[in-house]
Amino acid sequence: MRKFIFLASMVGVSIMLFACGHKTEKPLRDDPYDRTMDVAKDAVYYNRLKQAEVNYTKAFDLALGHDDRNSINNSGYNLATVQLALNKIDDAESTLYKTRQELYIRGQNDSKQLDLLQGVCLYKKGLYQKAIAFIKLASTSEDQDIKQRSVFLMGFLSYQLQDISTLQYCINQLEADKTTQDKNNLSAKADVTELKSLYSLSVGDYQKALSQAQQVEAVRRQQKDYRAMLRDLLLQAKIYLTLHQSQEAARCYLRAGETAKHMSNTGLAEFYFNQALLYSESYTMNQFARTKLQDLQKSKSVQ
After folding, report:
1. Rounded distance, CA 96 to CA 118, Å?
2. Cα–Cα distance between 255 and 272 in angstroms, integer?
3. CB within 8 A of 138, min separation 6: which ones?
4. Which of 15, 118, 170, 236 is packed most tightly, with the most Cβ within 10 A?
5. How many domains does the chain have?
C-alpha cells in the first residue's frame, strides 16, 4: 500500500484539503496502479489538478479491478481530495460515497480518512456542526497523519464556531504530539502556531495574533506550502483590518492575489485584488491593485 498526504489548506473561509497519500512499501513489480498514482501525484505537485483528477479516476478503476481494498481506499481518497481542490464538491461527495460502497462490499465498514474528507465537504457547504462531527471521528484514526490533520482542522472549525475551549484543546493535543515535538518538523510546529494565532485573535490579543501569523507564513514559504501560506496571508489581512490598518491589509491581499494567480485560481486572485483595491488608502497602493486587476484580465483574455 502506498500513501502520501498533502497539508490541509483553507482559503478565506473555506477549507481546501490536499490529502493525496500513501506510506510506501516498495512494490514487487511495476504495477499499473502504482504508475498511475505516481503520475497523479506529480500532476498535483505541478498544480495540474485536472490531469490529476483523470489519473486518480483511472487509478480508482484499476484498484477495483485488482480487488485491492487499501488501493480503493487511497485512490478514492485522493480523487475526492483533488475534486475538492477543484471546488467540485458534489463530485467529491459522489466519490466518497462510491468508495465507501466498494469498501463495504469488501468487508470494511469505515475509513477515517474518508470521514476527514466528508467533514471538509460539509464545511464547504456551510454545515459546520455536521462537518466537525465527521472530523472528530477522523481524529480517532490510528494513522498519525490523518489524526494530526483532523485535530488541526477541528481547531480551525472551532475558531469559525467561536468554540474557544475546543480550539485550546486542539492546540494542547497538537503540542503534546510527538510529531510536533520533533524540532525538525517545521510544518507540524507551524500548524500549532497557526491555531495559536486564531486563539489570540479570538481573545483579542491582536498584536500577538499578528506576530504568530507572520511566523507561520515564513515557515509555509520555506516549506513551499503556498496554499497554506495564502491562508496565513489572509489571516494577517483579517487581523490588520481588526486593528484598523487597512493599508497593511491591502498589502496582504495584493500578495495573496499573486499567490492565487500562481496557483491558476484566477477567480480568487481577482477577488483578492479587488479586496486590495477596496482597502487601499494611498494612491500608489490603489494603482498597484488596479494594474494587477488589468494584467489579470489580459491574461484571462489570452487563455
Report:
1. 7
2. 9
3. 112, 113, 115, 116, 119, 146, 147, 149, 150
4. 170
5. 3
Total residues belonging to the chain: 303
d(CA 167, CA 154): 8
Which amino acid is it at 162? Answer: Q
Q: What is the pLDDT of residues 232-246, one digit of tens each?
A: 999 999 999 999 999
Burial of 48 per CB tally in 10 Å (0-12, 13-18, 19+):
middle
Task: Say whether pTM exceeds 0.70.
Answer: yes
- Structural element, H or E, at residue 14: strand 14-17
Q: Which amino acid is at 206?
A: Y
What's the domain range around 292?
A: 244-303
Are both 222 and 257 inside the same structural domain?
no
Same domain, 235 and 291: no
In the numeric block, which cell numbers belong to residue 278?
A: 477596496
Closest CA to 92 of 12, 20, 11, 7: 20
Over residues 103-123, the pLDDT tens digits come to 999 999 999 999 999 999 999
Count other Cβ atoms within 10 Å, centred on residue 296: 18
Q: Do 203 and 250 sit in the same domain of this protein?
A: no
CA angle 265, 118, 156 (to 5 degrees): 70
